[in-house]
Amino acid sequence: MVLQFDVSDDPIVLRQQAAELRDLAASIDALPVLLLARALDERAWIGPSASRCRQEVQDAARRTANAADDLRFHAERLLAQAEMIENNPLGVSPT
Amino acid sequence: MNYLAFDPLQLDAARRRAATLLEATTQLRCYDPLAADADVMLRSLSSRLVNDWVPLINRVLASTALTEYEARRLAPTDLQRAVFDELIAPGWQVTVDPMQGAVSMTGAQAIALAGRLAGDVDGRLTDEDDEVVWLAGALATIGADSVLRAAFIAVFDDWERLTQRLVNRRFQLLDEVHRERRTGQVDGRWQRRLQALEAMTSGVASIIARTARSRDGSWPVIVDRLDPYAAALLVAQMDLDPGTRARLSASLILRYPNEPRQHVDIERIGDVLLPPILADPSWTTSLLQYLAVDPGALYFASLDTSLTERVMVAGVNQHTDPTAAMALIGTYLDDYSDHHQSYSPPPGSEFQVQAALAMMAGPWLGWICARYERFDWDKQADRDRYLSILVDTEESRQVLVASSEAWVHRLADQQLVDTAGRPNPIVMRELSQTLTVVNERMRAEHVSDAQSAVLLGDIFTELTSHLPELIAMKNPAMGEVAKQTAGQAIEIVVDWARANNVLPPTAEMVDDQAKEQWLRRTLDGKVYLVALGLAMVEHSGGIPAGFTRRLDLSDLDEGCEAEQIEERMAALSADPQLTEQQRANVNIVVANTLNFGEAAALCR
C-alpha cells in the first residue's frame, strides 16, 4: 500500500487524508509484531542473546502501537478541521 | 562464553513469524508528513528484522549442524549446562551463543547454577579450565546484580568448601608455575590457568562482599568462618574501604596458624594481603597497630619479605603522628625484647627482624635518643634497651644509619641557625644527644671500636653531606647567597676536623692507630658537634670568620673529654673582641652540645 497526501484546506481532501491515516493505523495494528514477540518467548529459547532479542521485539511492538495511536490522533484532528471549514466556509470566527 | 538453549520447532515457528512480519512491514509506505514518525518506525522495524533478528534466529537454528561438537561437549556433567538443565524441556538444543559478550543470566539461571555448585561435592564441575573461565564470568555477573545475588545465596552457602577448593587449586597452579620457572620451560599455560582461577576467586569475593546478610549473617561473619588463607584470597579481591581492609587483614594474619608457623615455600598469607594494603600506605599504621598484639605474626607472614619491610617502614614514616609512631616502635621493640628467641628466620628466608626494626626506628632516631621523655616510655631504661637492640648486629647498624637519613631531612626542616646567626638549642641538643647515646649504647653492647667507628663515621657523613644543603634549601629566609654558599659551613667544620684529627676514618683508612685516635677524639660524639655548631654559626655570621679554627685540640693525644673542650671554649668565648651576642651564640653551642641540661629543659 502506497499513500500520497497533499496538504489541503478542502474538507473533502481532509476527510480523505484522515481516512487513509486511519487505514494506515489499522495496517500497523495488524502487523504481527506481538505474535513474533510471543513466538520468541522462553518456550522457544533462553540465553543472553535470546533475552536481548525478545526485549527488542517487545519494545518494537510497543512502538508500533504508539505509532498507530499517533496516526489516529492526527486523523481526528483532520476531521475536526474539515468540519470546522464546512461550518464556516468564509473562515469568519464566531463572535 | 555464553550459551543458548532452544527448542528447534518453536524457534523455527518464530522464524516464519518474522518472515511474515518483514513482508508486511516492507509493503507499508506513507508519504504524508503527519505519518513521518510512523514511517521512521516502520523502516526501523524492517531494518532490525533484516539485519539482526532474522539472522540471529537463522544462525541459532543452523548452529546445531555447524557446531555439533560444541553441543556434544556440553555433557550433562558440564557446569555450563547447569544454567539450562533445570529450565529446558526434552528435545532442546544447547549451543554457543552467536552474539558473544559478557555472561548474562536470569534469576532462575543463578538459582540453577547455585544448586549445581552446592551439589558438587567432589569438585568435578570446576575441574576443567574452560569451566573455571566460564564460572568466573558467571559469578562476576551474579556479584554485580543484587537480584541475581539474592537468588544465588538463597540456594548456595557452602563457601567453606568452595573457597578451600580455590586454595588447593591455587597451590597446585603456583607449584606448577614455580616448577616451570625453575626448569626454564615457560609456555604461560599455568600462568593463564592461575589468572583464570584468580578471576573466579574475584567472582566469589564479589558475591560475598556485597551480600549484606545471608542465612548465616553478614559477609564479615562468612569471612570469619573461612580458613584464614581462603578468606585472605577473598579479602584481597574485595573492594573494601582502607580501614576495613587493614582491620580484616590484621585479623586474618593473626589467625594464620602460628605454632608452629607455617613456612609455606610458595606463598604465604602476607603475600596475598599486604599488596592491597600498600596501595594506600596511610593505612599501614592501622595495620601495625592491629598487629601490635603479636608482631611476630607479621614478620614471617610473607614469602616476599620486602612486603613486610615496606609495611613496617610505611606504618611509621615521617608523615605519621609522632605519638603513634613512637608508641608503635616502642611496642614492636618491646615485643622483640621478649620474644626474640622465636624470631629466627625460617629456612630459606632472609628476613632479619632486627634490621626491619632498625628500618622503622631510623627515621625517628633523634626522637628515640633525645625526645623519648615525651612519650609513654619508661624513660631512659626503655630508650637504652631499644637502642641496644637496634645496634646489636652489623646489619641492623647499617640499616639504622641508612634509614636515619629521613631523620636528618626532618632535622633540616628546623632552623639549626636562624637568619641572625643564632643557633637553635633544641636542634643542637637533639643532634648531640643522638650521637652520644648511640655511641654509649654501642659501647654498652660491647660493639668493637672498629665497628663503632664505622657507625659513627657513617652518621657523621650522613650529617655532613646532607645537613647544610638541606638547611639552606628548606629555609628560604637564609637567602639566595646563603643557599649558594651552604657548602662553606661544612667546609669550615671539615677543615677544622682535619686539622684536629676528628675526621671519621674512611673505608680505605685501615690504620688501627688512626681509628683509635678518631675514637678518642669523638669520645662521646660531642666534639664534632661543637665544631659543627660553631661552623654553622660562623657561616651564618653569628660569630667572626675563622673562629671555629681557633678551637685547637691537636695537643690532646689522650682524647677530648667534655670538660677539656668546655674549658677551651670558655677561654675562647672570653675573647674581648666578641660582642655580647656573639658570646651568647658560642655559649648556646657549648651548652647544648656539651651540657644537655638547659636544652633538655627547653625540649620539655
Describe the structure.
The complex is a heterodimer of chains A (95) and B (604). Chain A has 95 residues and is mainly alpha-helical. Helices cover 69% and strands 4% of the residues of chain A. The radius of gyration of chain A is 20 Å and the shape is rod-shaped. Chain B is mainly α and 604 residues long. Chain B has helices spanning 8-27, 36-66, 68-73, 82-85, 107-119, 129-143, 146-155, 159-183, 189-209, 219-225, 228-237, 242-255, 269-278, 284-291, 296-299, 305-315, 322-339, 353-361, 365-370, 379-390, 394-403, 405-413, 425-444, 449-474, 479-484, 486-499, 512-521, 526-539, 562-573, 580-593, 597-603, and strands at residues 3-6, 29-30, 93-96. Chain B has a two-stranded antiparallel sheet with strand order 1-3. In chain B, helix 6 (129-143) runs parallel beside helix 9, helix 23 packs antiparallel against helix 24 and helix 28 (526-539) packs antiparallel against helix 30 (580-593). The two termini of chain B are 69 Å apart. Chains A and B meet through strand 1, helix 1, helix 2, strand 2 and helix 3 of A and strand 1, helix 1, strand 2 and helix 2 of B.
Question: Which properties best describe this structure?
Answer:
heterodimer, A: 95 residues, rod-shaped, disordered N terminus, B: mainly alpha, two-stranded antiparallel ribbon, 31 helices
